[in-house]
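Just curious: can you write whichever protein you like plus the matching structure tokens?

***
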Amino acid sequence: MDVFSQVIASTRAGRAKFNRTRRTGMWGNSYGPYPGAGFHVLLHGSCWFVPPHGEPVQLSAGDVVFLPHGARHGMSDRADRVVDDLPAAELGSSAETQDPADPRDVHADLLCGAYRLDRGDAHPLLRTLPGFLLLSSERHGSLRSVVDLLSAELAHPRPGTDASLPALLDLLLVDLLRGWFDEESTRNPGRGWPAALADPLLAAALNRMHAEPGYEWTVAGLGATVNMSKTTFARRFTALIGQPPMTYLTWVRLSTAARLLRESDIPVSAIAHQVGYGSPFAFGTAFRREFGTAPGLFRRRARQGRVDSPQDH
């Protein structure tokens, strides 16, 4: 699994919830904060996105707002709204549905919802994202295609629509992150995760770490896989990723272990060995440090849908 796919797989927990709402007249709602990632897709019309801080942003048909950290925000028909003054609503709630009797009265046709994310497995890349991302599908062809497909499925439901919509929303998440990567690479060339994944040597080393987390990696060994000296590799990795190679490797190992605990019946001792720990005790100590709970308890809670968030550090 490549690094970008790991970003998606390691954080998403279940299907996105969503709701289509068609607005007319004077309207507005506040949302959040939400323990996941919110989104709004403007299918037709226009409206305003109201961030908790800063100036409102006008949206046009095809624009998508993504809130990776579930930040509080508002959506409205006017720019002079204040989030605190807007009635509260829940992202993706069917209670938010508003369907005017005459379709010609619709001023904003929105698909609003939220992705369930496991903050315990949050990839370091996601932590670097800003409070909200605004992307125009007019500038991103693949995003435009997804928005068009979503619009068509919602406008004319057919057999299979209930299966296709969650898949399209998964694809929307991928294209949102791809679009941000493209724009960030232009705004800040040579900096951060976009630059790291665009660097063929660092990307290759990252993919090796993700493909073989249980291997006895060293900084020198990782550098050697891409023909870089230990010092040069460590310096470049830390500058772009924001943490040393072995710190990141620890995250890869423990997040892989968490996924295996959630999704498989592999014994804890076997998982410990698979992700590079010499003993279940060493693995358990590292896992508790990251997730605040023992591996066995983590597995039981995951199956009951009650995985605790990891401790902040």
Residues 3-187 form a domain with the Jelly Rolls fold (CATH 2.60.120.10).
